[in-house]
């Protein structure tokens, strides 16, 4: 049974950077599209960005464009979310997710497209 294990969250001042990691335990997500979502207190989980199963495309939400970068390692065991120029409004719990099926990239911004989720990583940005 594959599990996703996240790490790298924490507290940072506005303008700073953090990198979140998502590791595959008990398997790999080499052929799977992977996504990052976030959830603020009292709000629904929202799409942040995704990486094509081949690693060739990385669409982002408007709020993340130009500041966040998603990438996978070649072995397909790790996916990362590099966050730069962080803002207070980026404060949330961040989740990585694995697509329901391999080699699919449609509807990457919908939670329903993902089957497995990490445990969540708290990111707190202060002024």
Question: Quick summary of this structure?
Answer:
This protein has strands spanning 3-7, 10-13, 18-25, 34-39, 46-51, 68-72, 78-83, 92-99, 114-117, 121-126. With 127 residues, the protein is mainly beta.
Structure, described:
- With 127 residues, the chain is mostly beta strands.
- It has no helices and ten strands.
- Strands 2, 4, 5, 8, 9 and 10 form a six-stranded mixed beta sheet that branches. A four-stranded antiparallel beta sheet has the order 1-3-7-6, with no helix packed on it.
- A hairpin with a 6-residue loop joins strand 4 and strand 5.
- The radius of gyration is 13 Å and the shape is globular.
- The protein starts with a strand and ends with a strand.
Radius of gyration: 13 Å
Put simply, the count of helices is 0
What is the first-to-last residue Cα distance? 41 Å
SSE string, helices as H and strands as E: EEEEEEEEEE
Number of strands: 10
Strand content: over 45%
Assign a percent range to the helix content.
Answer: under 10%
Structural class: mainly beta
User: What integer is the average pLDDT?
Assistant: 95
Shape: globular
pLDDT < 50 runs, ≥5 residues: none
How does the major sheet shape up?
6 strands, mixed
């Amino acid at each position: 049974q594959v599990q996703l294990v996240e790490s790298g969250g924490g507290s940072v001042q506005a303008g700073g950077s953090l990198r979140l990691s998502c590791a595959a335990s008990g398997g790999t997500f080499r052929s799977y599209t992977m996504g990052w979502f976030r959830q603020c207190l009292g709000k629904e989980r929202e799409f942040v960005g995704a990486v094509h199963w081949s690693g060739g495309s990385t669409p982002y939400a408007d709020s993340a464009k130009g500041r966040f970068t998603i990438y996978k390692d070649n072995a397909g065991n790790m996916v990362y979310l590099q966050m730069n120029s962080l803002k207070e409004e980026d404060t949330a719990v961040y989740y990585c997710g694995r697509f329901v099926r391999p080699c699919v990239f449609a509807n990457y911004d919908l939670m329903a497209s993902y089957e497995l989720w990490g445990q969540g990583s708290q990111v707190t940005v202060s002024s």
